[in-house]
Amino acid sequence: MRLILIVTITFLFIGCTTPQPIHTVAPPTQVRPTLTAAAAVTASPSQVPPTSSNKFQIQEYAVPRGSRPHDVAPDANGNVWYTAQATGELGKLNAATGETKHIKLGSGSSPHGVIMGSDGAAWVTDSGLNAIVRVDPKTEEVKVFPLSGVPNINMNTAAFDGKGILWFTGQNGYYGRLDLKSGKIEAFSAPRGRGPYGIAATPEGVIYYASLAGSHIARIEGDSAKVIEPPTAAQGARRVWSDSKGRIWVSEWNSGQVSMYDLKTGAWRVWKAPGERAAIYAVYVDDRDFVWLSDFNANALLRFDPSTEKFETFILPSQNASVRQILGRRGEVWGAESGADKLVVIRTP
């Protein structure tokens, strides 16, 4: 039994800024289920109310030291799942009590991304196992879908399309899919090789991914991926997310920008993030179509309003937090602080 404290900290909000827009196969393999024992559950910590400023509240939750949470995914039952990349485990946080629990994913595991499926399960992209991993939220059964016939693709992130197919990226130059009904898993060589990283679906279920090394985004059409060039060269497109209108938002790591691709018109728009040395890693669009970004160099989360074209800056309480991914549910925006061994939530009105 281990005690994990919920850390509640001073909240610093920096006002809005208005920037100027810059630009108006491998053969399938047998599914191999693997059952593992879960790690110890922590004791219930004491709670401290989160701090607030204006209409927002921010709160951090400590997770086991050394776990280095990479991606985070809140479920519909009040839990928040996260990949403990350094320890080869999937973590689960009870946001009401602060309790955490770790589930071992297998020898050699190095989990990167996690998302929630319509089945309520946590789906993990595991670069160490070169596999997709499903964790049952009730039984905690771990089922591994290994990708064979190709070298380790350095699996990154995943998204479900409109037909329930799980698509994933591999930064070594691949994208792939898992058919949940048959258990068939395949990988395809990405156009222009290395780089596929973030991936997301539009409301219609169309899949887009970002290529960090290739500095482009791509739309998956059947078995093929069609490259779409952003207007800024060598921008380092890292992650993508869709808003309710199906527009694709891109976090640009090298340029310090956020860009938006309108698939209906084919037009791009680009905005420079606040500050002189912005390093924009993650992007997420919430249920009100506000665009959330993480800025490594500012140690902050940013909120961009497309209607006013203004940014709001939320300085993170922990130093060198390094939020690598953002996800949310209604009224909550969650980030994984890989540099601080914490999860952070901003509660919105």
Q: How does this structure look, described?
A:
With 349 residues, the chain is mainly beta. It has a single domain, classed as 7 Propeller (Methylamine Dehydrogenase, Chain H), CATH 2.130.10. It is built from no helices and 34 strands. The strands form 7 sheets. Strands 1-5-11-10-9-8 form a 6-stranded mixed beta sheet, with no helix packed on it. Strands 2, 6, 7, 32, 33 and 34 form a 6-stranded antiparallel beta sheet that branches. A 5-stranded antiparallel beta sheet has the order 3-31-30-29-28, with no helix packed on it. The radius of gyration is 19 Å and the shape is globular.
Mean pLDDT: 88
Q: How many domain modules?
A: 1
Percent strand equals: over 45%
At the fold tier of CATH, the topology name is Methylamine Dehydrogenase, Chain H
Q: List segments where confidence is low: pLDDT < 50 over at least 5 consecutive residues.
A: 1-14, 16-49
CATH class: Mainly Beta
| Rg, Å, rounded | 19 Å
User: How many β-strands, per DSSP?
Assistant: 34
Discrete helix count: 0
Largest sheet: 6 strands, mixed
CATH homology superfamily name: YVTN repeat-like/Quinoprotein amine dehydrogenase
Entry keywords:
about 350 residues; mainly beta; about 50% strand; globular; disordered N terminus; Methylamine Dehydrogenase, Chain H; single chain
List the helices and strands and how they pair.
Layout: E1 2-3, E2 6-7, E3 12-17, E4 32-34, E5 38-43, E6 51-53, E7 56-62, E8 69-74, E9 79-84, E10 89-94, E11 100-104, E12 111-116, E13 122-126, E14 131-135, E15 142-146, E16 155-160, E17 166-170, E18 174-178, E19 185-189, E20 196-201, E21 207-211, E22 216-221, E23 224-228, E24 237-242, E25 248-252, E26 257-262, E27 267-272, E28 280-285, E29 291-295, E30 300-305, E31 310-315, E32 323-329, E33 332-337, E34 342-347
